[in-house]
Structure formats: structure tokens, C-alpha cells
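Below is how a single chain appears once it has passed through the pipeline. First comes the sequence as given, then the structure the pipeline wrote out for it. We keep one example in the README because the format questions we get most often are answered faster by looking than by reading.
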Amino acid sequence: MSVTVVIVTVLTALWVGFSGVSLLRRAAFVVEPLVSYGIPDTWWPRLAAAKLLGAAGLLVGLPVPAVGVAAAIGLVLYFVGAVITVLRARSYKTVAFPVLYLVPVVATLAVGM
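Resulting structure:
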């Protein structure tokens, strides 16, 4: 395993984990867009859990690569879904935000394989 894989994986896990914790804490910068997209607040704990479990899976993937690949694929699907949700809400000015999470996850998947 290369140093690049470890660095990219750890930074991505921290970034996605930050997003999950921010959602759990109902930070305004996370919650306000979700409300505007029409995401029910009953979904928020599950969405936060998906992010946190995905971040943990990336870290577990360092010693167990299959878990990391599965976590990265799950996170790619999660953030592609987020991009689609933003586009369906016609909030084109905020589509960059889920992309800012999608790109590092894709990079982690790419360097991990």
C-alpha cells in the first residue's frame, strides 16, 4: 500500500465524516439546503449514518481492501444521489457542494484499486 493511498483515504474519510457529523449536529449550512431540496428531517439521521459508516468503511479498507472498495462504491452512489437530488430541486448554484464530496470519494476508489 502506498503513502498516496493512505493519505487520500484518510483525508476523504475525514471530509465525509465531517459532513456526517455536521448533519447529525444539524448545522445550518447542511440543514438549510436539505430543507430547500425537500428532504424530510426524518431522513437526516439515516443520511448522516450512511456518511459516517462510509467514512469508517474507508478507514477499515486500509487493512481490509474489500471493505474500503465497498464503502467507496456506497459513498459514490450516495453522492451521485445527492447530485441528482440537487439537480431535481433545480438548485444549480449549489450542485458544487455534493460534487466536492463525490470527487474525493471517486479519487479514493481510483487509487485504492
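The mean pLDDT is 93.

See the next section for the split statistics.
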